[in-house]
Amino acid sequence: MNAIEVKNLQRVYRAHIGVIKRSIKEVMAVEDISFEIKSGELFGLLGPNGAGKTTTVKMLATLLIPTKGTATILGYDVVKDANEVRKHIGFIFGGERGLYWRLSGIDNLRYFASLYSVEPEVSKKRIPYLLEMVGLKDRGNERVEGYSRGMKQRLHVARTLLHDPEILFLDEPTIGLDPVGARDFRLVIRNLQSEQKTILLTTHYMFEADSLCQRVAVIDKGIIVALDSPSELKKHVADLSVIEIETFGTSDEIVERLRALSFVDSLHIEEQDQRQMLLIQTARGAEAVPDVMNSLNGTRVGRVIVREPTLEDAYVRLVGGHV
Amino acid sequence: MNFRNIFRYWRTMLTVAEVTLRHQLNDSFILFAILVQPLIIAVLALFMLKDTAANAAMFVVVGSGLTGLWSSLLFISGNSINAERWQGTLESLVGVPTPFDVIVFGKNLANVVQSLLSMIVAYLLAALFFGYSLHMDQPLLFFLSLFLSVFAFISFGLVIAPIFVMYREVQQWQNAMEYPVYILAGFLFPVLLLPGWTTPISYILPPYWAAVALHGTSTASAPLEQTLFAWAMMVLLSIIFLFIASRLFKIMLYKARVDATLDVQ
After folding, report:
1. Which residues of chain B have a Cβ shorter than 8 Å from any chain A Cβ?
2. Which of A23, A288, B213, B252 supports an S-S bond with A284, CB 3.0-4.6 Å?
3. Are strands A42-46 and A198-203 parallel, antiparallel or unpaired?
4. Best of A89, A115, A144, A163 to disrupt the B interface by mutation (most B CBs within 10 Å)?
């Protein structure tokens, strides 16, 4: 049975610009997407910034009205039956906002339990259980303003689970967390998965989607460019190898020269301080390294690795290397 | 709406009010609006009324309390939805099954109740520092009037908040709306002193009828008919404002979901 059904969903944002001569600017955030999520499935939505992930989640969470198309949650329409949908869903949007910082963690939970109409005798038992589950048992009485970012994220999870919803929308929940915090958070998601919750997870982190999601939709410029299991998506790049080259001070001219090489399928650059990591996808594998090194022409080079492609490489290829 | 839902929403509203009170305890602006400003007004008025009868002091105590109520309503309740938006909690409130007007009602209840503190502080100031021997002429009727006034103020606040969200140009006049209501509602002197054309404006303001009932029962031994009429007007205006507010909230929330303004972009 499908818990979520999305058909030809579209969302256009309209912004008024100009002071004297006012005009309306339209931005197509989601152009036309359709997918279904089975009950109990952990479904990933991947895409670069501005691809339409958060907009999609907000439409499903009844917080935005779609411009076109329909979406149903457990058979309820997200526009016409918004109130019924809200009883069955929980949502987290990445970041620290959305909590009352001058209240304690427990007061935040008590407040939201009341808004979800959780009976007081139920919330009295559920709040300590959830605080323990997210590792905040000993900090529940402290004000949220003193929490770390990871603690706030975990409190968001507890808030989302107060009314024990069947469906969860987690929009980039690990963004900004340190590696240990992110790992702990992924454990929480796994626990939720084992409780047969239906989860829609959006993330930038491929290994997160790879290790957690049963199916993944790759969204780019408001449309779904691929939808499959992580292992099937990796087959998109099965014929390729990835050359990782650490460089210092690569110019735009050199990048363009590399992109122009006939055997380069795609080139993605990860910048970190003075360092650039060039990720070149090619069918020639290690044989391509000498030609690539020639093209780098005097650029200071660190380590060079040739490896098998990952889900991230499949994703880079699907969205055309512009992440 | 069945009885079970009404009970559930009532309970939610009380929890919202309680948590809002706790949340606002450390906000210095709120303390200024409900304590410091009414206190300054009370001190000024009490100095002006020095050596006059004690019931004039009682008029000031009630009047300065009402100024605190109105300021709290205008600034705290009026900004309550926008404040939620800026702190990123508005989406979480809209995304719950509880109707949004129930939540805002609870928040307004907290604001109005906490601003009653200004009346208590003004009372203590007049009694302890100015040495007035204060007594209430009709204490039972006064407290019943106070109960209805709280309800009338909340209903009025429920209309103001969505208007401020939908029409930013109206909110720009927020500061300018504070003192005219002090005057038009007769908080610190009778509206009979104002030109006749202002009277219809006073009549449609719930704070005016609150002032009539509270001043009448605390200082003037007003005839029962006058108090009962003020109560009836408060109930009538509350029902009208609640109806308008419920329509406004529906329009505001739908518009916010279309325009994507539930969160700060």
Report:
1. 8, 11-12, 15-16, 19, 22-23, 26-27, 87-89, 91-98, 103, 254, 257-260, 262
2. A288
3. parallel
4. A115
Report the residue from B8, B11, B257 with minimal CB separation from A63: B257
Which residues in chain B are closer than 8 Å to A63, comparing Cβ atoms? 91, 94-95, 257, 262
Task: Give the separation between CA B90 and CA B110, rounded to whole angstroms.
Answer: 18
Burial of A43 (0-12, 13-18, 19+ CB in 10 A): buried
Q: Is B217 exposed, middle or buried (0-12, 13-18, 19+ CB in 10 A)?
A: buried
Q: Which of B15, B22, B95 sits opposite A91 (nearest CB)?
A: B95
Exposed, middle or buried: residue A281 (CB in 10 Å: 0-12, 13-18, 19+)?
A: buried
A32-72 pLDDT, tens per residue?
999 999 999 999 998 888 889 999 999 999 999 999 999 99
Strand partners of residue A275: A248, A272
- Amino acid code (one letter) for A199: I
- Residue in the structure block whose two tokens are 């304690």: A104
Quote the tokens at residue A44. 């990933």
Question: pLDDT-based confidence at B248, cuts 50/70/90?
Answer: very high
Do the beta carbons of residue B118 and residue B65 sit within 8 Å?
yes
SS3 A198: strand
Contact B260/A86, CB-based, under 8 Å? no
pLDDT, tens digit, for every residue of B136-179? 778 889 899 999 999 999 999 889 888 888 887 777 787 788 88
Q: Does pLDDT of A260 surpass 90?
A: no
Smallest CA–CA distance, residue A313 to chain B, in Å, is 31
pTM of the predicted structure, to 2 decimals:
0.82
